[in-house]
Amino acid sequence: MISEAIKGFFEGVVKPVLDKVVPDANLRLEAEQAIFKGAMALDLAQIEVNKVEAAHQDWRVAGWRPALGWVCVLSIGYAVIGYTFLNWLFACLTLITGHTVPGLPAPDTTMTFDMVMGMLGLGGMRTYEKLKGLTK
């Protein structure tokens, strides 16, 4: 299965440049194949690095991926529950004390949701691979 990032980069950047730079169709095809094989080799090398990182015993090496997941969970938890609850609490304190307690600004969850959707998408692909018996 070809990585969508490699495929997109190849079709969007490499192929148009080679079409302009290399006029001979046979040479262009050879260059495309060489570049594509190199990109695939880099992709496979990164997969191996990911495996080694995930299996590492030190939490500072293997723990950054779960940490990113927990940061996303906490961020969404704050945006959905914490922000609303705290602003409600501040409004109640304003009514009870008579002193104005300013509310919190709305959190910007754009980056958080981008990360979560990426992580869920990758998790979904992994589940699909496991269900089809493509990986262990």
Entry keywords:
single chain; mainly alpha; 2 domains; 5 helices
Account of the protein in words:
By secondary structure, this protein is mainly alpha-helical. It has five helices and no strands. It has helices at 4-21, 25-55, 59-62, 64-97, 110-131. α1 (4-21) runs antiparallel to α2 and α4 packs across α5. The longest helix has 34 residues, at 64-97. It is elongated, with a radius of gyration of 24 Å.
Secondary structure elements and pairings:
Blueprint: H1 4-21, H2 25-55, H3 59-62, H4 64-97, H5 110-131
Helix pairs in contact: 1-2, 4-5
Could you report the average pLDDT, rounded to the nearest whole number?
A: 81
Largest sheet: none
Strand content: under 5%
Overall tally of domains = 2
| Number of DSSP-assigned strands | 0
Summed up, the helix count is 5
